[in-house]
Amino acid sequence: MPQHIEAQYQEILNEYVKKQTEQNLYVGQNFSRQLILENISPEEVISMHKAAIRELYSDLPDVVWHSFDFLIEMMINYGLALQERQSLLKRQEELKVEMDLAANVQETLLKTKLPSLDGLDIGLLSIPAKKMNGDYIYFVSDYDGYAGVAVADVIGKGLPAALCMSMIKFGMDSLNSSHAMPKDVLSVINRIVEKSVDDSMFVSMFYANYDASAAKLTYGSAGHEPAILYRANTGGFDELEAKGLLLGVSPAAVYEEHSVTLGKGDMVIMMTDGVTEGRTEEGFIERDVIYELIEQKKDEPAQAIVQHVYDELERMQNAELQDDFTLVIYKKV
């Protein structure tokens, strides 16, 4: 402790004890700011106060001096706890700034336009569980009778996830063709993710290309949640399986490609695991529940079906989504 600080404090304290005016308090308050600038800890302030009191009132009983020693020990622990709390608050503020920036990156860079094709009705809903959305949807349409769609789920959060999504969008923009086939799209995006994104971050993706003239949907998957095919003539549901590694795992990954032809009223339901892995107090929500919700609104427009599924699953989970919710429906009309 600098001696001039101790001497100054003793003088200020002595003046206050003698006069006890507002001016004395004001001088003390200004002095406290000087202590902060000098990086004087709380326990050092108490030690300084004890020394000043001893100089001014040396005949005080021992119990008073012991009480000061006790307070000094308390302040040491208090100071450490306060520093830890302040460090935590600072980190939380930094994380908030990062999340705000990531959300702005998403909003600015990741916009996509819904295709408009005769005979195809599209429903879409993507709701983040928290501020940042780890899911991504990208549509490709050049008004030539084709409509491509990518549904992706980034394994990671915050700004790194947003930047990863921007790389995916860059890759999709570079393809810039709704004629591109799923296996080729996934291969290109896989190489971009593998080269450009941190090794700890991976992406699952389902990509589908719809040909309106043949009513045919061709699809592939990179470790993503299987899409669901609903057949209007039978009322049956089937999973559209396609093998393929997560994006970013290996540059040599090869992706399968399959096709289905859609009849009137048929639907392809694409989603992320936030839809299929919802939880209630009783456990996970079964897929049959999702099938039933779709069946209830099968004759409605695709957007109404999507909204109905979301509203009911949110209600079942007491309005608390466990994960990002993304659902896309292609419906043949």
From TrEMBL:
SUPFAM superfamilies: KaiA/RbsU domain, PP2C-like. GO terms for molecular function: phosphatase activity. InterPro entries: Bact_Sigma-Reg (IPR052016), KaiA/RbsU_helical_domain_sf (IPR017944), PPM-type-like_dom_sf (IPR036457), PPM-type_phosphatase-like_dom (IPR001932), PSer_Pase_RsbU_N (IPR014787). Residues 121-332 form the PPM-type phosphatase domain. The keyword Iron-sulfur does not apply. Keywords: Hydrolase. It comes from the Bacteria. This is Phosphoserine phosphatase. It comes from Planococcus maitriensis.
